[in-house]
Specification:
160 residues, alpha/beta, 3-stranded parallel sheet, globular, binds zinc ion
């Protein structure tokens, strides 16, 4: 299933969230096994910046810090079904060249009440491939190229 030299990039995950304090090593190991080659760690508020910088040093070459702040939390009160349909329509309409993959972990997991983790990014890649009727390899390759355009600093993480 693995395309040579190409892997997935999680463009948005909250590795500094307390949810990951206990087992971040395991979480990142699992992500690596799921063909994730780089993660962009984001902050929800500026108080997390220092922790994110520490993480990017500790996992140098795997975790890229992104010190912006999070957009406003929460979806408008729509029912879940209409959100799902809209998402599917959006994935169909958007060209692959403008899609980046992100988990937003530990929030927004595929299963409610279960902590989301970066390795779930492979589920997103499979979902997009299915909706668009293309191969997972193509999704991985193009979305990773997109991530590189967005975060040029990723380039030296991927050239290993
Ligand atoms: Zn987020």
């Amino acid at each position: 299933m693995r395309a040579a030299g190409v892997g997935l990039v999680d463009c948005h995950c909250h590795l500094s969230a307390p949810d990951f304090d206990r087992d971040l090593d395991d979480v990142l190991e699992k992500a690596k096994k799921a063909n994730v080659v780089a993660l962009v760690a984001v902050a929800e508020h500026s108080g997390e910046f220092e922790k994110i910088m520490q993480l990017s040093e500790r996992y140098n070459g795997f975790v890229l810090p992104c010190l912006g702040v999070h957009p406003v939390q929460g979806l408008p009160p729509e029912d879940q079904r209409s959100v799902t349909l809209k998402k599917q329509k959006l994935v169909k309409q958007l060209p692959l060249t403008s899609i980046c993959l992100e988990t937003d972990s530990p929030a927004l997991g595929p299963e409610k009440q279960v902590r989301n983790e970066p390795w779930n990014i492979s589920i997103s890649a499979e979902y997009i491939a299915q909706v668009k009727g293309i191969s997972v390899e193509e999704v991985i390759e193009v979305t990773t190229q997109n991530a590189l355009k967005l975060f040029p600093k990723l380039r030296h993480l991927l050239q290993k």
